[in-house]
Sequence to fold (345 residues):
Amino acid sequence: MSEMNLESYPPVFRRQNTNPEAQAQAQISCLDDNAKELNQEFDPIPVVDLQCLNLDELVEACKQWGLFRLVNHGVPLTLVSQLEDHSKKLFSLSFESKQALVASSPVSYFWGTPALTPSGDSLSRSPQNINWVEGFNVPLNQLSQFEAEDPTFDSFRLLLEEYGRHLAGLATTIFQAMAKALNLSPDQSKAYLSESTGFIRVYRYPQCSMADETWGMEAHTDSSVLSILNQDLGGFELLKDDKWLQVQLIPDTLILNLGDMMQAISDDEYKSVKHRVKPNKHGERYSICYFVFPAEGSVIQSSKYKPFTYSDFQAQVQQDIKTLGSKIGLDRFRFNQTEADDPAS
Ligand SMILES: O=C(O)CCC(=O)C(=O)O
Ligand SMILES: [Fe+2]
Fold:
């Protein structure tokens, strides 16, 4: 088991590690897991090459998978590794320092749940249902308006801004190809993906000796139009034909997944893919996720759903999480069968 810096963990993640039996068990299953990983050589995830984008392959991946791997994505590797280094440094600070660090900044620090309010506070969560994750939530359009006193945090901010610009460009390129395939009008395609809505989540999944009974992040679909993930360790799984599949770690590639807004925009032709993250028994996992949404106030017109804005959707998700404990998502907005036949009725 690797060295852990328990002080840096939010207190809810510290309890596991005091149990020597669990630690011994984790050592044993470490061997099992390694054997399993060796067996899974084949990575079935479709690949989209940004240097020669093939529209048919892209559409097929959107319909069949709702997720694909991006290669030749053009994001400078030095930028990615600098951002990873800074993230690790910040997460290694004590729990209290991380809380203090983000105070009076647009960045928020959260743990135990990925479900946040629009201002970045955690939505309440029952202690039995903790997700083994902590993160920084970063609204990109607010980054340039503040300067952090802490030098590491300030260079983190500058790296995020730069990374955000690259990812916004990437998302726009891919979305425009999708818009072309879906015959969206220029106005629609402008309204349905707005770079100004982009935000980044930087996550650390603490080491977890109870990884068989806990989720790093429980199964969900993203509410975004598109999400683009950089992971430093395996653990991301997606649901495909009712089976969970691991997405392997392949260096210098990114994983793009479609969110609920994209599914609605495409009239359900493209899939908002269900996914989850397994925690790791032997080490910490870090990931950086970029999310992008429709322009503020733009109404999504779809033959399958009642017209709604992303704000309507978000408000409904928040309410469902508060009252039911989980997100219902697109089904809340779906026409029922008779309405769908004649939306005017
Ligand atoms: O950290 C990951 O690998 C995935 C995170 C994720 O699914 C999310 O933030 O919605
Ligand atoms: Fe997600």
Remarks:
- The chain has a mean pLDDT of 90.
- The pocket of 2-oxoglutaric acid (ligand 1) is lined by residues 114, 201, 203, 217, 222, 229, 231, 236, 275, 277, 287, 289 (CB under 6 Å).
- Residues 44-301 form a domain with the Jelly Rolls fold (CATH 2.60.120.330).
